[in-house]
Amino acid sequence: MDPIIEVDNVTTVLGGHVIHRGLNLTVHRGEVIALIGGSGSGKTTLLRLMLGLDVPREGTVKIFGHPLGRCAARDLECVRYRWGALFQHGALFSALSVFDNIALPLRELKSVPPALLKPLVMLKLAQVGLKPEDAAKQPSELSGGMVKRVSLARALILDPQLLFLDEPTAGLDPDSAKQFVKLLRKLRQELGLTVVMVTHDVDTLFAVVDRVAVLADQHIIASAPLSEVARLPHPFVRNFFLGHVERCAEEDVKRFRLSLDDTSDEGGVPAVLRDEANV
Ligand SMILES: Nc1ncnc2c1ncn2[C@@H]1O[C@H](COP(=O)(O)OP(=O)(O)OP(=O)(O)O)[C@@H](O)[C@H]1O
């Protein structure tokens, strides 16, 4: 399997405290991996290392084979455009419309002809299940679920191969969370994305994740399919999956995912737009 992310023997120190010690994690092309761990265990910090926003005290983080922190600035720029990120709370710019928020990474690139901006933004808007008229709205006019979708559209605007999601369903009501997870499943199938997400939501793991990495005691104590991880005797894991262990059995997960695929879906790429995007 082709590794996209290689975190090798990483030690991270923040504010004089050791957050990670000897942490290893590999993410392979096309997989959806969830990072779980107690509050303050260092999940967001690990995402930040993978995004090159923090640097480990020891060890290396490679993305697409490039060691972050040690590759030339130009190399890093090339890698940077191969991933997208959705941060907690969406992090939209409140003074910009939905259109301008989604267009921002394209404008920053400076090489996209202005005439292409509109079709590209409208394509992404449709891809995440929003209506064309939503483009003119301000972030203050959006529901929590819509904010997540706009943030996702912005994260996808440069057609990344790798997507980082920090608690994508946090703050959503159960129905919006369910719709958002269905959208992730659809995008993953259509775009072949590799996804790394931090989540506290068992339903998200249940619906979309291939592998669960557990961050505890300053390192990854396990990285395996849900059915295996849910049965670990570690106190954090026991608490996390309390009341859910039985439904995490492999067959039950498979059956549940098939049932999701059967139901009609909103969002995703309308076939006509997909064809246009592939021209
Ligand atoms: N810039 C910083 N300086 C000092 N300490 C920090 C900094 N950023 C994070 N920390 C500390 O590092 C630890 C890990 O934080 P992190 O945000 O990665 O945890 P987390 O697992 O994502 O937590 P949560 O699930 O609550 O969001 C925490 O104890 C936090 O207080």
Automatic annotation (TrEMBL):
SUPFAM superfamilies: P-loop containing nucleoside triphosphate hydrolases (SSF52540). GO terms for molecular function: ATP binding. Pfam families: ABC_tran. Keywords: ATP-binding, Cell membrane, Membrane, Nucleotide-binding, Transport. InterPro entries: AAA+_ATPase (IPR003593), ABC_transporter-like_ATP-bd (IPR003439), P-loop_NTPase (IPR027417). It comes from the Bacteria. Residues 5-242 form the ABC transporter domain. The keyword Membrane applies. This is Phospholipid/cholesterol/gamma-HCH transport system ATP-binding protein. It comes from Roseateles asaccharophilus. The lineage of its organism: Bacteria, Pseudomonadati, Pseudomonadota, Betaproteobacteria, Burkholderiales.
